[in-house]
Automatic annotation (TrEMBL):
One of its GO terms (molecular function) is ribose-5-phosphate isomerase activity. NCBIfam families: PRK05571.1, RPI_actino, rpiB_lacA_lacB. It catalyses: aldehydo-D-ribose 5-phosphate = D-ribulose 5-phosphate. Coiled coil: none annotated. The keyword Membrane does not apply. It comes from Peptidiphaga gingivicola. This is Ribose-5-phosphate isomerase B. InterPro entries: Rib-5-P_Isoase_Actino, RpiB_LacA_LacB, RpiB_LacA_LacB_sf. One of its GO terms (biological process) is D-allose catabolic process.
Length: 150
């Protein structure tokens, strides 16, 4: 599977770890930055680029990482067509995919150790959307609002 990934300085070390593990597992990982540690960088450009790439690459998924994951999720969700879910445990990682067909997962590097964060990513990637009519209906309502002119 092709997986897009992005972070700022706060998640740089975790991004490198997760990207390496995903590549070892046979995934194609596309890194949208940060490409080096810079304590003064800002997450929005990288997270938006990751979200845009996921939308332009059907069937791919994305990972955005920061200190808490909150800002990264917000930035990614500004991209039309992105459904980014903040995962803070296995259940939220699974439900993001299963109920919301999330195509991007956000993770807080300052909130979780490497192995725990990787377990969220692996579960997110491995969980299919349920296809349940009520979940699809809700996704469609959000997409309808997103595409409407206001």
């Amino acid at each position: 599977m092709r997986i897009h990934i992005a972070t700022d300085h706060a998640g740089f070390e975790l991004k490198e770890y997760i990207a390496g593990k995903l590549r070892e597992g046979g995934h194609e990982v596309i890194d949208h930055g940060a490409h080096s540690y810079d304590p003064m960088d800002d997450y929005p450009p990288m997270c938006i680029a990751c979200g845009e790439a996921v939308v332009a690459d059907p069937g791919s998924l994305g990972i955005v990482i920061g200190g808490s994951g909150n800002g990264e999720q917000i930035a990614a969700n500004k991209v039309r067509g992105v459904r980014a879910a903040l995962a803070w445990n296995l259940e939220t990682a699974r439900l993001g995919r299963e109920h919301n067909d999330a195509n991007v997962v956000a993770i807080g590097a300052r909130q979780h150790g490497h192995e725990e964060a990787l377990s969220f990513v692996e579960l997110f990637i491995g969980t299919p959307f349920s296809g349940d009519e009520r979940h699809q209906r809700r996704i469609d309502l959000v997409a309808q609002y997103e595409s409407s002119e206001r």
